[in-house]
């Protein structure tokens, strides 16, 4: 199913989505990526959960050529695609490599699977057949490996980040993007105020500096830290996105068409709440020293 969602383009104002990007459905946990000049957002489907817990069963995708008008590509994968998964389709991530697209999908609060396709929005399958990360098999997963995020560095090395009970983790991925290399390592963030990392890790590189952002809790801010290496240790730099009006805060930061964006979730859609979230896209700006100006939330 493909459906066009029209954004609002005010005369004289820069192009910006008319938030939320989907006016008809609750979606959350945006993982935003640029593939071949188009922005894609992968999301948890909050419209198919019970409304009282994050017990979603599938993931959805959207794309845009301009960050304003969004195409709804519908369901992109569901729990039945993993023979080994039972429940809890939580925050997804995506990557493009080798002529394939990869989705990294947490389930059951204790496993992360990977699905592959030649299309960014359909045809994904569990080529591997077993979880990529599994608490019952792997060392140092932490008790709750969730919220995967993939990052491919300029030298071609790919990394999988995930969150696990207040301890961010990272492991190298092989070039096939469906197997890991070496141990699962802890990510260190020095100097973060309060309780620090809770969930929703995100990684990107700007001007040679690695930016690691994350949510601090329930509710949480999106704080960020930087390092000269994707493995850290990271030094706390500030708040990229302040508290939102739902109990979880999960975001992506990316550059698209020479602008920087913060993609996040709140309860702006009518009937919304902490289990019925919707996705917003807002501009993100930097100071001259590379620090992030806390994003102005245009839709609450
Ligand atoms: O959607 C379920 C969970 O809520 C995600 O895994 C967390 O990041 C939080 O947004």
TrEMBL record:
GO MF annotation: an example: hydrolase activity
Signal sequence interval, chain numbering: 1-17
Residue span of region Disordered: 116-146
Protein's recorded name: Glycoside hydrolase family 43 protein
Domain of life: Bacteria
UniProt keyword annotations, A-Z: Carbohydrate metabolism, Glycosidase, Hydrolase, Polysaccharide degradation, Signal, Xylan degradation
Organism: Streptomyces vastus
Family affiliation: Belongs to the glycosyl hydrolase 43 family.
């Amino acid at each position: 199913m493909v459906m066009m969602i029209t954004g609002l383009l005010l005369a004289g104002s820069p192009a910006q989505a008319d938030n939320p990007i989907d006016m008809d459905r609750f979606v959350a946990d945006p993982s935003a990526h640029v593939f071949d000049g188009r922005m894609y957002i992968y999301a948890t489907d909050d419209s198919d959960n019970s409304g009282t817990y994050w017990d979603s069963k599938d993931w959805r995708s959207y794309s845009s050529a301009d960050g304003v008008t969004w195409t709804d590509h519908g369901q992109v994968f569901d729990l039945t695609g993993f023979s080994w998964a039972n429940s809890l389709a939580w925050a997804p991530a995506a990557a493009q490599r080798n002529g394939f697209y990869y989705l990294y999908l947490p389930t059951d609060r204790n496993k992360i699977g990977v699905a592959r396709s030649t299309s960014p929005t359909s045809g994904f399958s569990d080529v591997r057949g077993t979880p990529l990360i599994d608490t019952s098999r792997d060392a140092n997963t932490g008790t709750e490996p969730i919220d995967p995020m993939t990052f491919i560095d300029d030298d071609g090395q790919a990394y999988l980040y995930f969150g696990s009970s207040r301890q961010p983790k990272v492991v190298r991925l092989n070039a096939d993007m469906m197997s890991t290399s070496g141990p699962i390592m802890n990510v260190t963030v020095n100097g973060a105020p309060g309780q620090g990392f809770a969930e929703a890790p995100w990684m990107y590189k700007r001007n040679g500096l690695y930016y690691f952002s994350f949510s601090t809790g329930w509710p949480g801010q999106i704080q960020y830290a930087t390092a000269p290496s994707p493995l850290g240790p990271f030094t706390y730099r500030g708040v990229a996105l302040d508290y939102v009006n739902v109990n979880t805060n999960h975001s992506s930061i990316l550059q698209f068409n020479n602008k920087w964006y913060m993609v996040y979730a709140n309860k702006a859609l009518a009937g919304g709440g902490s289990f019925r979230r919707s996705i917003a896209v807002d501009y993100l700006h930097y100071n001259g020293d590379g620090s992030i100006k806390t994003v102005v939330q245009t839709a609450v």
